[in-house]
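Subject: two folds for Thursday's group meeting

Dear M.,

Sorry for the delay on this. The cluster queue was jammed most of the week, so I only got both jobs back this morning. I'm pasting them in the order they finished. Each block is the input sequence followed by the predicted structure tokens. Could you check whether the formatting survives your parser before we put anything on slides? The first protein is the one we discussed after the seminar.
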Amino acid sequence: MLIVNAGVKRLDGEGGRLNDTLASFAREAFAAADFIVLETDLKKAWVLEEGVAKVAAARLLLVQTPIWAMTAPRQYIRWQDEVLTHPKVCGADGRTRTWACDRWVRPSLSRMSIRIRRSKRIFCDGVMRW
């Protein structure tokens, strides 16, 4: 399992303690249940390839993050955009079209406005696409 601690410090140098504590509780609980626990702490520098390897090795991903005005900290959004959309994780870059008649490009995972177009059915080569 991979625990991503996104409890980062604010500009004034404070913050992140609650998320550190909750991530620590999760680490201890899963370790007691014989899980192999990997961690990524976004207060520290991280390497893309190491993050991709951790996500690929994990069967469970736990993200501990504060909610800042209805969003997550930019450090977590960056990690999410770079690691979770890496081709070794999702099989593509997460943004390019996968079939020729696709009328839109899927936005990055960090955008809360990902729209699933269920209202319009798109036909491509006789196959109904949503």
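Second protein, same layout:
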Amino acid sequence: MPKLTGEITAQFAVRSGFTRLVHKYHASPLKIAKTFRYENEMCMDGAPPMDQLGVYMMDCSPGLMAGDHYEINVRLEEGARVFLTNQSFTKVHPSAEDQGSTQHQILRLEAEALLEYMPEPLMLYKDADLFGETEAHLSRGSTLIYSDVLCPGRTHRGEIFHYTRYVNRMKVWYEGELIFYQNQRIEPLVMELSSPGCWEGETHMGNLFVFSDRLGPRHLEVIVDKLSQLEGQTVRVGASLTYKYGLVVNVMGRHAWELQDVLTKAWHQIRRSLFDLTPLLVNK
């Protein structure tokens, strides 16, 4: 295990009817910048708003340097509802061979908990090498909505797929059963990314992952219908159900903001169809 260089541990619980941050620990350069409260409006007229706590994470450094290792641990107790994000792009700096950066995230959701984790895009600089792993442990009635967007580098400098390696693993358990496993590996120097059937002319990739035992085929139908109505977009997008209790939206394009716009629309639709909630408006 690489030497730990940044850490966040946060635990949320319902106290007196409101979700609260009941325990936190952070080690520089990572920290919890602030929390704030949302009152989610319900789509049904006259229904009371649903409480949710918003949380911002911050990296005080320029980003992940060679050899850095970040740990993020988040736990939601029964019924807790949290929106989690960070303040800016995660930047991965160059590293020499065998001195890459790593990031490990563990998300634990107890019964009826809701975690919406929507970080800003990940940017890999020239010669960057990142191994990332996310583990999610879900309990009965809990819901995880998680997005990621991958950028090919500092495109305004001509950095497009100049990074060394990107490995991204995601594992999701439901009541102790492994229900989803993704192992993504991109090595631009040895892969023909522009080949037909691969990235072709696209440079950015994003995903929206939704895991909940509430999900069913009708939720996929609603998402596909919503995505088919996109106008003025030059992205490629698709959606499918996973093996069990999961739905994934994939999008590829040439600009991070375009992917974020599509994924946000899909996220808003999922909130409406799963929880009868209006869109969550996030200011940054």
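Two things I noticed about the second structure. The longest helix spans residues 256-275. The radius of gyration is 19 Å.

Cheers,
T.
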